[in-house]
Amino acid sequence: MNVAADKRPTVAIGSSATYQFKPKSSGLLPRGLTFLAVLIIIAILAVIMFNIIYGGIGVISWEFLTHPPEQGMEAGGIFPAIFGTVALVILMTIAVVPIGVLTAIYLQEYTRPGSRSTRLIHLAINNLAGVPSIVFGLFGLGFFIQWVGGGIDSLFFESSRPVWGQPALIWAALTLALLTLPVVIISTEEALKTIPSEIKDASYALGATKLQTIRRVILPQALPGIFTGGILAVSRGAGEVAPIMFTGAAYYLPYLPSKLNDQFMELGYHIYVMATQSPDVEATKPILYGTVLVLLALTFMLNLSAILIRSRIRSRRVNV
Amino acid sequence: MYKQQDNIELESLQPQASEPHNTTSRDKRDNASLPVKMTVKKLDFYYGDSQALYGISLDVQRNRVTALIGPSGCGKSTFLRTLNRMNDTILGTRLEGTVKLDEVDIYRDVKDVSVIRRRVGMVFQKSNPFPKSIFENAAYGLKVNGVTDKRVITEAVENTLKRAFLWDEVKDKLQRSAYMLSGGQQQRLCIARALAVRPEVLLMDEPASSLDPLSTSKIEDLIGELKRSYTIVIVTHNMQQAARISDSTGFFYEGRLIEYGSTKQIFTNPTKKKTEDYITGRFG
User: Fold this and answer.
1) A318–B133 CB contact, under 8 Å
2) What contacts B267, CB < 8 A, 6 or more positions away?
3) Is the same domain home to A31 and A123?
4) What span, in angstroms and rounded, lies between the C-alpha atoms of A170 and A184?
5) Which residues of chain A neighbour B132 with C-beta distances below 8 Å?
């Protein structure tokens, strides 16, 4: 360094001005800083994973996965919560994917990109994505349970006991669907954008209508993107507690939900309950760890299977 | 483009003029007396506010190859796409004047554009097979136009692939992806796909511009065969190609049709200075 600085070259340019070129720094500092940032993230993740696995792995057993909680959640398993979570996520996916995909198709195929109305819709979608999840929960309570459910009850049911106008699996799933809608719309739109216009032109040139082109050419091409949207929605939805605590999740249920208007237990909510509402928080701690581990594993497995399905679709498309 | 090209074109034109299957009227190469398949009158075309075509009038002769030449951005591709209403798919475009297919005004008399696109097929510059099997590509046009009988489709696929001289190369791998084919084969598949719906006119937008010389000559041979049964309009940047394969040639410049006549006349005795400059390679 010092030697180089001493020999700093002096170059004469043009008539009178002389310039000195400063030697470049070695770049060690930025490299070190960025690496440190990465290291912090990896370390935090490692601590979390280690803590959960260390605390939870001992509890995991076939009994734990297949039995309901017992003795005020200090013993027994978490099967109803696993069942409820899976049912919730499946119903949510059934609701969110068609609406999200149709919205994306409308935006990409039926409106002029960048037009005022398209930008307005995108603004709305982005705002929807920014709404805190607790607000979705309150919206679900007010809109789905009191207005839609209550409306159904007063129209079709005589009894004073609410049938649909109460927290239920269906309302929680729809609330979660609203929450995850932007994710599905945006990833489907990204997929639609990548489809070359030449292929659409080829379809139109053969006399295909817009609908036929969408159904036969565009959607099959966009399928991996739609799956990505579904994956992201599922992993987001499966971990949310706030939207379902008013709309359907139950503290404890002696039975499994069998109808759409049943309440249900859910892993995330169960964790919240055990951590804050249990009669003896210390005594439920091992089960709490186990439940967190199961929730993580379940989300991981849902993601993994969706990724596998997506890559299978991709490879099938390339080497028919 | 090439200094010596005039000679090449003259030579390549000679055998065409005496093709045995040509009728007497065709041999005369008299534009006015040939049967007309498509008639374009006073066509103006706009992308939003900017005008792309100015008062184009042109007759496309039946069972002939009409070549459209001109520098990039001269409007020849835009013009080609007005012949099967492909420009309808671009938002904000506008058109004045008439385009007739036989006696039908394809803009005013036709509600369902798919009818026009079936009768006037199109092959694009970049080969654009669907990400489907070879069979599905060839069958697509039939399927979207309501043909459901599997036997009919299978037969039509075989026929159309034969007509595009592709059958022997692909008959054992019809279920494989079209993307497995070479560029030239893909383009012939696109031609086969267009022919499957039995169009009357085939529009080709620089169909060989991205292909190697061997594939190009295959496509050119194919075009020579196809004009027996179809009317062909081809946009090309390659003037030797226009001279080799076409019967009539139109020269486009800055959105205007500068000159239109028999290929022989355009390439040997152009009446407009601009045409002469372009075909002798002084600009473009």
Assistant:
1) no
2) B6, B9, B10, B13, B239, B242, B243, B249, B279
3) no
4) 19
5) 220, 320
Q: Answer yes or no: do A31 and A122 share one domain.
A: no
Q: Do A206 and B141 touch (CB under 8 A)?
A: yes
Contacts of A203 in chain B (CB under 8 A): 130, 140, 144
Closest CA to B192 of B147, B135, B232: B135
Q: Do B194 and A205 touch (CB under 8 A)?
A: yes
Token pair 């089960």 in the structure block, residue: A287
Tokens of B165: 């001289």
Nearest to A55 by CA among A47, A43, A67, A63: A47
Per DSSP, helices labelled H in B211-280 are 213-226, 239-245, 263-268, 273-279
Query: In this structure, are residues B234 and B68 in contact, taking their beta carbons and an 8 Å threshold?
Result: yes
- Domain shared by A45 and A119, yes or no: no
Nearest CA in chain A to B84: A205
Q: Say if the ipTM goes beyond 0.85.
A: no
DSSP A258-284: -STTS-B--HHHHHHHHHHT-S-HHHH
Residue A28 lies in domain: 2-51
Contact B263, B247 (CB under 8 A): yes
- What is the per-residue pLDDT for A277? 81
Give chain A's domain count. 2
**CATH homologous superfamily for B5-18+36-128+202-279?**
P-loop containing nucleotide triphosphate hydrolases (3.40.50.300)
Measured distance between the N- and C-terminal CA atoms of chain B, rounded to whole angstroms: 8
CATH number at residue A238: 1.10.3720.10
Average pLDDT over residues B23-31: 41
The pTM score is: 0.78
- Distance CA(B191)–CA(B162), nearest Å, equals 11
pLDDT (tens digit, 9 = 90+) per residue, A164-198?
A: 989 999 999 999 999 999 999 999 999 999 898 89
Encode burial over B3-35: b for 16+ CB neighbours within 10 A, e otherwise.
eebbeebeebbeebeeeeeeeeebeebebeebe
Q: Which residue is it, tokens 């994505």? A: A129
Report helix, strand and coil shares of chain B as percent, to nearest 5. Answer: 40, 25, 35
Among A7, A137, A79, A133, CA closest to A266: A79
Mutation for B interface: A206, A210, A221, A318, most B CBs within 10 A: A206
* CA Rg value for chain A: 27
Query: Under a CB-based contact definition with an 8 Å cutoff, are residues A289 and A55 in contact?
Result: yes
Residues of A in contact with B115 (CB under 8 A): 207
* Backbone CA torsion sign across B48, B49, B54, B55: positive
Asked whether the beta carbons of residue B194 and residue A217 sit closer than 8 angstroms, the reply is no
Does A205 contact chain B (CB < 8 Å)?
yes
Task: Tell me the pLDDT tens digit for each residue of A111-127.
Answer: 887 788 899 999 999 99
